[in-house]
Design goal:
The complex is a heterodimer of chains A (382) and B (853). Chain A has 382 residues and is α+β, with helices and mostly antiparallel strands. Chain A contains eleven helices and ten strands. Chain B is mainly beta. Chain B is built from seven helices and 63 strands. Classes of the chains: A alpha+beta (382), B mainly beta (853).
């Protein structure tokens, strides 16, 4: 009996342990199921998303620091479904950086006195606030012009035809020039402009430097001028050629910058290179041709379109825009004058020597080679 | 002849300049000369043996339209077609036909009609043969037919069962149609879930693209985002014929290439619409701010060129009818099978097409052979002088009740008449049935298709004189007063008996009756059309109609009465001021118009509040000053604005204002985001952050320096002066209502708050701490449960309705049930108390008045 009792107890203990185990497992399963059910993200039908931004301007740089909900920005930029953890998210931001840059810089457009600033995505990181994950994007815009001018921000993130978010607001706290304050972008409010603004003359002055800088840095324009100068023999000749070039490029610069004429850089850029080559070879083949002025005018039209591609106006035709355009053009002319003023006297001086003819030909030929190399590069690269 | 060097240079330069144009222009030229296309050709034939392959003796069918979504070609006399399909337009290429009347297309194992064929990703220059089998279907030549309209099913666990319910109908349904939002995120898993659910349907299920059918894990191009939809359920836009109806299925969610679809629809209508009536099926509404992009208004003119009859949409998860978009056509929105936003019971519609017209009755899911005797109530004692009528509520989801009859004891059967979707009534018989003592009432109802069920109850007739109704203090606006405290000035005992029932043909949902100067007012919704929406004025003593007035849309909110006027809100965003005595219209405020051809969009799902000669009215429009929601303070006499102040949302940005101590509180957007305004100036004082993550329709209660508002199966208390959160409370049980809609408002008195929750609980909380004083869970079940009704407190009793189908009186100290009355359908409306009467509205469209014994 005693043995039987003992065995019975053992068996009982075994059954009890088993029962406890079963109950435990059942509980655990239940708890896990419940937890996973609760953990399932609540599905919001109205996809409302609030973003915040801080905008700071310092000198010619405007920093636009914005936190936009991760899942929606990822969808809009097309970088993929949001991963589950931050490490993977950070990787996704790195691999999708180009797409993110394209999306953000084309949809958050900063301009100063009617001229678009050049935007880059400086950094993009993952951010958590309350229980929502955001992409914190550090956008930097380089603005030409007088930093105290009138800033405009166009914000077209999440449009109706993207159908990603039903309701998006971005609360912006800003400091731009001497303006400070807050503004809310939403579906009905896509644009914001700081008050005040400078006189058109002031605006123009701000863009002169940009124009000078542009022509001096634009090697192709410099080379074109150099080749033209090599072909000119007299001061009146230089004046005529320069005037023709200026008139032509001013015309197309205005038309192009205002968006009235649009020819893609893919076409304009190789043609600019070709224009240098043509003038150079013509210099070698003949001395000052009868058609030179017409040719220069035609090529000037091309160069103007080239200038226009580097300045983008907001499309609004007002005095400030005109001022900016005039300033930019003045800068180009100023740069051009500086080039002519420094190069032509040297050329005149060199022409006193007998070897100048040969040197002329060599330099011109080199210019032609460089130009044709550019032509080929731009044609293929385009 | 030799060429001069300069000429040679010019020729060379010209050639090189020409070369520049080659690269950019080459693709354009190539596309024009030889577009990236595949040739798709085949035969549309009569598949007599239904084996899906063309056998000898199966003739081709001429004049059938075949399309790739851009080009539409028609089959020749032998049923042959051929079209060039642009292989770069989408990722997965599809060719499809427009099913003609008199024919059926086969369905796949998921009940998706196979009017289309997936071709994979075709290569440029490919040539494929696709034959389409059609089956003879003489039934589909009939001009009289019925189909089921379902919307916004999302990834809803009940979907298969819902489709089974629809399939169970005794009616001969032609098909089921889903107005978009089949999924949430358009992933493979979700489409698989959808298809496995539609497999439960024996009827074909025609889909449409909702905004939740865009997949966001790939490239942000339309081709990439719509590819999952195409692979699982077919093309984004298509058409089919049934009887003399031409159905056009559109994608109006915004991302589709607008011109592409518009051109296709123009061609489709030109080819098919002549002599037919047009039915448009698409996802997004065209009349509310939370709807299709306004570009799609361009379709209005196009559809007006044809005999367009009906536009069926979803998206807003609400029931609504309108006739403002395409002239001559009803624009009907159907609520979601997943969860609703206007808090209506989840359901679908039967769309009955007749040769010359149509109707589209809404049907709620999940009710099987329901039958409740509402008068005289089983177990009740009734004075023989009060025996005027017999009334029952009967409902069966799948088939409408067609007949009802009753008998008392052994007397003969008496036929009953119908009111609304639920109620059947007849005069109480003379003679023996009126003798004092116990009687048995037996009721039998028959539904379409012959299903028959019955119930019975006993009641006692007494000789006692019925209690006289005496009106007391006014309960003149939502939840009793401008603070929405829910407290009656008069003390009503919970020992109640039915005084009268006032029947309307509409529905009463969360909008509640109000009482002023001995008259009860209630707004009604029309779930299907614009016929029975309006406001009713009912004599409190007799239950007889004094007047009724139709409004421009459903009255979802609660009217308010002041200065001899009744202010009636509509979901169109209009506020009507009627003379309280006569019902004459005194003034009306409608949403600001916009310049054509764009249409204004507007709504308001809330109630106005009145205080000190000012009526506070919230609404939202898509364009103009109310685009973020607008709170307007209007002179009660003239409707002239005193101030107008914007709210803070963008979607469903409206809310019921509460007015107290010179401040106005509004729950905005998700409702739990409360905004406080200065009542005199409209200046915004503070905006609280949304905390509970819920849904709209809750109204604030502002009492004793605090503001309370419900959301997401919870309630939050804030400091009225600063907006600071004081405490939040979540009701513990799983909600009967999917996504936890919490439109109830707390009644607050003497430091205690009484609140209803969608999990069926009515709970008393300490206003200082949010701690539970008592909590009871009222009975409910899926589709029929939860407390949406805002409780009314009178004396020692809390009166509240439940979606379980009853009206309750609970002990204010303990929550113990003291009295209840079965109405047999949702009582989501809040009771109103005045004098010795309680008036409650129910989903059956009726007002029930109870008087203290």
């Amino acid at each position: 009996m005693s043995t039987g009792d003992g065995r019975g107890r053992v068996r009982f203990a075994g059954v009890a342990t088993l029962a406890t185990l079963v109950v435990l497992v059942a509980w655990l399963t239940f708890a896990l199921t419940l937890a996973s059910a609760l953990a399932r993200p609540a599905y919001a039908h109205v996809r409302a998303s609030e973003a915040t931004s801080v905008v700071r301007q310092q000198g010619s740089t405007v920093q636009f620091l914005t936190s936009i909900e991760y899942r929606y920005l990822a969808a809009a930029a097309g970088i993929g479904l949001p991963p589950a953890n931050d490490e993977a998210r950070q990787r996704q931001l790195a691999s999708g950086r180009d797409k993110l840059t394209r999306y953000l810089t084309s949809r958050i457009v900063v301009s100063l006195d009617g001229v678009q600033c050049e935007g880059v995505l400086h950094d993009a990181t993952v951010e958590h606030r309350q229980s929502t994950t955001y992409i914190r994007s550090d956008l930097r815009y380089t603005c030409s012009g007088e930093p105290s001018g009138r800033y405009r921000i166009q914000y077209i993130v999440f449009t109706e035809d993207e159908a990603i978010v039903d309701n998006h607001t971005n609360v912006v706290e800003y400091q731009l020039g001497s303006s400070r304050g807050a503004f809310v972008f939403d579906q009905a409010h896509r644009e914001f402009q700081t008050g005040g603004g400078s006189s058109p003359l002031h605006v123009a002055a701000g863009f002169v430097g940009f124009g000078v800088d542009h022509i001096l840095r634009g090697l192709d324009h410099v080379l074109f001028l150099v080749v033209l100068l090599l072909g000119a023999t007299t001061i009146p000749g230089v004046v005529k050629v320069a005037t023709s070039f200026t008139a032509a490029h001013s015309l197309t610069l205005a038309l192009g910058a205002l968006g009235w004429v649009e020819i893609p850089g893919q076409i304009v850029e190789p043609l600019i290179a070709l224009s240098i080559g043509y003038v150079a070879v013509e210099n070698i083949l003949t001395s000052e041709t009868r058609h030179r002025l017409g040719v220069v005018f035609a090529f000037g039209l091309l160069h103007g379109l080239g200038f226009a591609n580097s300045i983008s106006l907001t499309g609004e035709f007002d005095l400030a825009t005109l001022g900016a355009l005039a300033g930019f053009n003045c800068g180009i002319e100023l740069g051009q004058l500086m080039l002519i003023g420094s190069i032509f006297p040297i050329l005149l001086f060199i022409r006193r020597f007998s070897w100048s003819g040969a040197a002329h030909t060599v330099v011109t030929a080199m210019a032609a080679i460089v130009a044709m190399t550019w032509y080929v590069q731009r044609l293929i690269g385009a | 002849m030799t060429m001069r060097p300069v000429t040679a240079l010019r020729v060379l330069t010209g050639t090189l300049a020409g070369l520049v144009l080659v690269q950019p222009l080459a693709p354009v030229v190539a596309e024009v000369v030889n577009p990236a296309a595949a040739e798709v050709s085949g035969v549309v034939y009569l598949d007599k043996d239904r084996d899906g392959t063309r056998d000898a003796g199966e003739p081709g069918i001429p004049n059938v339209s075949v399309s790739d979504g851009v080009t539409i070609v028609q089959t020749d006399d032998e049923g042959r077609y051929s079209l060039d399909l642009d292989v770069e337009r989408r990722i997965t290429d599809i060719v499809y036909l427009t099913k003609p009347a008199g024919y059926a297309v086969p369905v796949d194992e998921y009940s998706t009609p196979q009017f289309y064929r997936i071709l994979g990703e075709l290569d440029d220059g490919a040539s494929v043969q696709v034959d389409f089998p059609l089956r003879s279907d003489p039934k589909s030549r009939r001009n009289d037919f019925t189909f089921a309209n379902v919307a916004d099913v999302h990834v809803n666990p009940d979907l298969a069962a819902q489709l089974e319910q629809i399939n169970e109908t005794a009616q001969d349904l032609a098909f089921v149609q889903v107005s978009g939002d089949l999924t949430n995120l358009a992933t493979d898993e979700e489409f698989t879930y959808y298809r496995n659910a539609t497999a439960a349907s024996k009827l074909p299920v025609w889909p449409a693209v909702g905004n939740h059918e865009y997949f966001n894990g790939g490239e942000p191009t339309y081709a990439s985002r719509i590819d999952n939809y195409r692979r699982y359920v077919g093309p984004e836009w298509y058409s089919f014929d049934y009887g003399n109806r031409h159905f056009v299925v559109l994608e109006n969610n915004g991302a589709a290439p607008f011109e592409e679809q518009y051109a296709w629809v123009m061609n489709d209508l030109a080819l098919h619409a002549k002599g037919k009536r047009i039915v448009v099926l698409m996802h997004m509404p065209m009349n509310v701010p939370f709807g299709s992009p306004s570009d799609y208004d361009a379709y209005e003119e196009l559809f007006e060129q044809y005999d367009t009859e009906l536009v069926l949409v979803g998206h807003e998860h609400s029931n609504q009818a309108d006739n403002n978009w395409v002239k001559g056509a009803r624009h009907v929105q159907t609520n979601s099978s997943s969860y609703t936003i206007d808090h209506s019971p989840r359901g679908f519609r039967y769309v009955h097409m007749r040769g010359d017209g149509s109707d589209n009755p809404f049907r709620m899911y999940g009710v099987e052979r329901a039958l409740t005797i509402t008068n005289p109530a089983p177990g009740s004692e009734v004075s023989r002088h009060a025996l005027k009528e017999v009334q029952v509520n009967a409902y069966h989801t799948t088939d409408e009740v067609r007949e009802a009859r009753f008998r008392i004891d052994d007397a003969g059967w008496v036929k009953m008449r119908r009111s609304g979707d639920f109620s059947w009534y007849a005069s109480y018989p003379e003679g023996k049935a009126r003798s004092t003592g116990r009687h048995t009432l037996r009721v039998e109802v028959v539904a379409d298709g012959g299903a028959r069920w019955s119930t019975s109850g006993t009641f006692t007739v007494t000789d006692a004189a019925p209690p006289r109704i005496v009106a007391g203090d006014d309960w003149e606006q939502y939840h009793g007063d401008a603070a929405h405290s829910g407290i009656a000035a008069d003390k009503l005992s919970p020992d109640l008996e039915l005084a009268w029932i006032y029947r309307t043909p509409g529905t009463i949902l969360t909008g509640s009756p109000v009482i002023a100067d001995g008259v009860a007012y209630v707004g009604t919704r029309d779930e299907n059309d614009l016929k029975v929406n309006g406001v009713h004025a009912v004599d409190l003593e007799t239950g007889k109609r004094l007047w009724w007035a139709r409004t421009d849309a459903s009255v979802h909110g609660t009217p308010a009465v002041a200065d001899g006027l009744v202010f009636v809100p509509t979901i169109h965003g209009s506020l009507f001021a009627f003379d309280a005595k006569t019902g004459a219209l005194r003034w009306k405020r409608t949403p600001e118009p916009v310049d054509p051809p764009t249409n204004q969009r507007s709504y308001s799902y809330y109630s106005p509040a009145v205080a000190d000669g000012v009526v506070y009215w919230p609404y939202q429009t898509r364009f103009g000053k109310a685009s973020r929601g607008l709170l307007a303070a209007l002179d009660t006499k003239t409707g002239e604005p005193i101030w107008e102040s914007p709210m803070t949302g963008a979607t469903m940005s409206d809310g019921t204002p509460a007015v107290v101590d010179g401040k106005v509180f509004v729950g905005n957007e998700t409702a739990d985001r409360v905004i406080a305004y200065d009542a005199a100036t409209g200046e915004q004082l503070w905006t609280a952050t949304a905390r509970l993550g819920g849904w709209q329709d809750a109204a604030p209660t502002a009492v004793d320096g605090k503001v309370f508002i419900g959301s997401n199966n919870g309630v939050i208390a804030r400091d009225a002066a600063t907006g600071t959160d004081l405490w939040t409370y979540r009701s513990p049980d799983p909600s009967y209502i999917p996504v936890n809609a919490t439109p109830s408002a707390p009644a607050v008195v003497d430091g205690t708050l009484y609140m209803g929750f969608p999990d069926g609980r009515v709970t008393a909380l300490d206003v200082e701490t949010g701690e539970v004083v008592w909590s009871v869970r009222l009975p409910g079940k899926p589709y029929l449960g939860g407390v949406l009704s805002p409780p009314a407190v009178s004396g020692d009793t809390v009166f509240v309705g439940s979606n379980g189908g009853r009206l309750y009186a609970l002990d204010r100290a303990t929550g113990a049930e003291q009295w209840s009355y079965e109405i047999g359908t949702w009582v989501a409306s809040g009771p109103a108390v005045s004098g010795n009467v309680l008036v409650a509205g129910a989903w059956d469209g009726n007002l029930y008045a109870f008087v203290a014994r």
